[in-house]
Give the backbone structure.
Amino acid sequence: MLRLENISKAFGSLVVSNSVTLDVTAGQRHTIIGPNGAGKTTLINQIGGQLSPDSGKIFLHGQEITRLSAPLRARAGLARTFQKNTLFQALSVFENVRLGAQAAHGRTYDLFRSWRSDTGVLAQAEQAIEQMNLGRIAAQPVGKLSYGDLRQVEVAVALATSPTVLLLDEPTSGLSPSETAQMIDVLRALPREISILMIEHDMEVVFSIADHITVLYYGEVIASGAPRNVADDPRVQEVYLGAPQ
Amino acid sequence: MTSMILPPKQPAARRFVFVAMVLACVVLSPLAVLSGYGLDVITEIMIFAIVAVSLNLILGYGGMVSFGHAAFFGLGAYATVLISTRYDVSPWLGLAGGVGTATAAAIVIGAFCVRLGGVGFFMMSLAFAQLLNSGAIKWRPLTGGSDGVGGLLRPELFGFDLSDAGPMYLFTAAGLVGVLLFMRMVIASPFGHAMVGTRESSLRMDAIGYQTRRIRLAAFAVSGAIAGLGGALYAFYNGFVSPDALSFGMSGMILLMVILGGKGSLLGPVLGAGLFLSVKNIVSTHTSHWLLIVGCIFVACVMVCPDGILGFGKRLFRSGERR
C-alpha cells in the first residue's frame, strides 16, 4: 500500500532520516517507535508531503508520489493527523469533519448551492463522526472542547476523507489513561480497508494495536517486524528500552 | 386532509416574503422622504457598501488582509469611463468592461499575492495598488494623469434616465441587494466553507486534499469582480474618475469600513460604509479635519468592539436577553 525506499533527509548536518525503507501492507497496523528526536514526525511529514526528502522514493498503491504535493497525496488516499491538533477553531465538530469529507467527494468550487445539498458529503461526515464516537458533541464549536475530545476530532477529520492509508502522529499524546483506552477502542474498531501507519510513545497503545513495529533511532531503522520479535531484539532493548535486563 | 396532499407552507418561504417586504420598505422609503441630494448621498454609501462587502469576502471569510483593494475599485471605474468615452460605446458595455478588467487584474495580482500569507500578502497587495496608482498618474494620454478622466453620461434603463437621482438610487440599491444575495449564497456554499477552512488552518486544508492557493485565488478573483462592479457604479455615479480611486487612502477607507462594521458578517461592511460616509459628510461640512474625528471613532471602536458595530450590537442583544 505504502512503501518508502531509502528516504533520506538532513537539516544542515543533522541527519533526520537515514535511508529509511519501510512497507505498510494492506490492512496493516504499523507502528513507528523510537526515542525523542529519532525523526518520527519528520518521517510522517515527508510521507504526507509537508516536507520533501533529499533522496529516496515514496510509493502509494504502486504509484510514485515523492514529488506530489500534499493535497494531491491526500486525494490519492493518504490522510494524516498532526501531533499538535490542527483543526478549524471557529467551526463546529461536524463542520470540521464535513470539510474532510468535502475534500474527497465534494464540489469545492461550487459557489451556487448550499453545502447542505451535497448529501454524499454529509453521509460521509456522519460516518466518520460515528466511527470516532463523536455524535454527542458534533454540534459544538471545536474551540470549546476538552483536549481529549479534540484528539478524537483530529482523527475524525482525516478519516472523513475516506483514506486507504491513515498516518497517525501520536494520537494518544497528552491523553489521560481513560481517554487513551477510548482512543484504543475506536482505532481498533476501524475497518481493515484502511491501513494505518502510526507514531506512538505509549507502549500499551503500541502493543494493543500494532501488528508490525518499526524502531527508528537517530533517523535510522534499527529493527522492523512483528511486535514480539522487535521487543526481543537485543539492539532495540539496548537503545530504546534502556540497558538489557 | 389537505395537508396530506399539499405540503405545508414552508416557513422558509414565509420568511423570504417577510424579508423581501422589509427590504422593499427600506429601499423605497428614502425615495418618498429625501430630496435629490439626500438620495445621492445614500447612493454613494451603497456603492461603497458593495466595495466593502467585496473586501469582506477575502478579509472576513478568507482571512486575507488586503491593503490594496482600491486597485480593483479604481480599475473598474477607470475601465468603465475609458471604454464608454474613448470608444463611444454604450456605458453598459463600459460597465461590463469595468467588471471584466477588475476581474482579470484580480486574477493576475492575486496569483502573486495568494502565495504569501499575513504581512507578505498585505504588502504585496499594497504594492500592486500603488503601482496602478502611479500608472494612472503617469500615463497621461490614457488616463489624463492626476486630473483624471470624465465625460461619462449615465445611460437609460427601461426608459428611466439614470441621470436623475431617483432611478440611479434604485439601480444602485438593486446592485447592492444583488451583491448581498450573492454573498449570502457563496458563504453557505461548499466553496464558502472551504474558504473559511483555509482561513482557520491552511496546513490542515492542504493535508486533507484542498489546493489552498487555488481556493484563495478564486476568492480573490470573485472579490475583485465585485469591487470592480462597485467601481463601475462609482463611474456612473460620478461620471469622472481620478487616481484617488486607486490610492492608498482609498484602500485604507475600504478596509476601515469593513473593520468598523464588522468583518466576517454579511451586513457588517454595509453598516461600516454607512457610518464612515455619514460621519464624513456631516463632519466635513463643519471642519476640514474630519479624518481626525473618524480616527477617534475608529480607535474607540477597536477598543470597545473589536468585532465591529454589528458584533457589538449582537453582544448587547444577547446580554439583554439573558437579563
Q: What stands out?
A: Residues 38-149+158-262+272-278 of chain B form one domain. Chain B has two domains: 38-149+158-262+272-278, 292-323.
